[in-house]
Write a structure and sequence with these properties.
three-stranded parallel sheet, 45% helix, 14% strand, alpha/beta, 121 residues, single chain
Length: 121
């Protein structure tokens, strides 16, 4: 069983106690990813998310705000792919997490993998 399966199983099994959000970072534009993630927040948390949100920073801040009143897990899979989409997202996450970590009830899990092609000489 791989790391994604393990975390996804954990989120599924604890869904009644604390819902879980699963964000897969595919190679899409930031706007398209954010739209997909917004749907996940609306469906799994039953929260209002305004239309027109296009940056992950905005969405992550909203998620941390929701976490002030709800307990849930946010699992970001293939986290390293943010580097191909907008490398600034890493700094945004760190800045916002530092600001909210003592006030929010979000369990943040990130997972990724790096594949390096071997160069034969």
């Amino acid at each position: 069983m791989g790391k994604t399966s393990l975390v996804y199983k954990l989120i599924s099994e604890t869904q009644e106690d604390a819902p879980g959000l699963y964000f897969f970072v595919g190679r899409k534009t930031e706007t398209v990813l954010v739209r997909t993630f917004i749907q996940e927040v609306r469906e799994k948390l039953g929260e209002f998310v305004p239309d027109g949100m296009s940056s992950f920073r905005e969405l992550f801040r909203l998620i941390l705000e929701i976490g002030k009143r709800k307990t849930f897990t946010l699992f970001i899979d293939e986290f390293q792919e943010f580097d191909n989409i907008n490398a600034g997202i890493f700094s945004d996450i760190q800045e916002l997490w530092d600001e909210y970590k003592k006030q929010t009830n979000v369990c943040l899990i990130v997972s990724g993998s790096i594949f390096r092609k071997r160069i034969h000489r």
